[in-house]
Amino acid sequence: MASVSNVSSDDRSQIQRGGKRFNGQHGVDTTLVKEVSWKEKLMGRNVSESSNVISDRDFVIEDDDIFRSSINGIPAIDFSERLRNFLVRDMETTVVVKLLGWSIGYGALHNRISSLWKPSQPFHLMDIENRYFLVRFQCRVDYDLALIQGPWIVFGHYLTVQP
């Protein structure tokens, strides 16, 4: 390979535009590789899938997305269609579950749901108040299976599943 001094300025600029920079006699690849975030690792997504999706961090709320008003002295807030679609997007494959007549912990419920439903992709379980949980699926097929099939029984008690 030619040394740095033997490379023309056109070749050097082309090399730099292509993501490679010369370092002595060896070409060093300095192209950026997107690191996998902890959230992506936890949710089971790989880099190629997540890099094509607009992340929540990329979404910007603009001034015309929120409409504040007052109706008979009571504050009211309306959202634009764009913001409403963004807020609803993740809820499309989310179900609310509750184990009737039994208090169950997060870990136990997660393990039981995994063994009952056997989802094709990992799901996200969120503990909300009053012994209710949200289950967000990555796959519509898993969502439909959990919602339509059943009845689901965990520790001898019915598991209610609502969209």
Automatic annotation (TrEMBL):
Residues 1-25 are annotated as: Disordered. This is DUF4283 domain-containing protein. Pfam families: DUF4283. It comes from Gossypium barbadense (Sea Island cotton). InterPro entries: At4g02000-like, DUF4283. The lineage of its organism: Eukaryota, Viridiplantae, Streptophyta, Embryophyta, Tracheophyta. Residues 92-162 form the DUF4283 domain. PANTHER family: DUF4283 DOMAIN-CONTAINING PROTEIN, GLYCINE-RICH CELL WALL STRUCTURAL PROTEIN 1.8-LIKE.
